[in-house]
Write a structure and sequence with these properties.
Blueprint (H helix, E strand, L loop, with lengths): L19 H6 L6 H11 L1 E11 L2 E12 L2 H4 L7 H18 L2
Antiparallel strand pairs: 1-2
């Protein structure tokens, strides 16, 4: 291609199909904070297998599952404020100390 010849314009790209990721993150550009916030609100389960061995002999095998979620999703009854919960625990501990011999 000679340097004097103008380039032909590329044909327009067809619109991209929406994926599940687009539905979760939304149409706007998402920052890392938006992604983490959305993942914690919805919840994520990570599964993995761990095998420890020595000299090609499997000694320990573990199947691991990890749930990442916001605490208010896992414990929906925790609607009271932190200080109220803290005060209630403090009163309960104090009452238990009094009843011990």
């Amino acid at each position: 291609m000679s340097p004097n010849r103008p380039k032909r314009p590329s044909p327009p790209r067809p619109p991209r199909r929406r994926t599940e990721v687009d539905d979760i993150l939304g149409p706007e550009d998402a920052s890392l904070l938006d992604i983490v916030d959305n993942l914690l609100n919805k919840g994520v389960v990570l599964n993995g297998d761990l095998t420890l061995g020595l000299a090609r002999v499997e000694l320990i095998y573990a199947r691991l599952s990890l749930l990442l979620s916001a605490a208010d999703r896992v414990l929906p009854g925790e609607n009271t404020e932190f200080m109220e919960r803290h005060h209630a625990r403090h009163v309960l501990r104090k009452a238990r100390r009094r009843t011990r011999p």
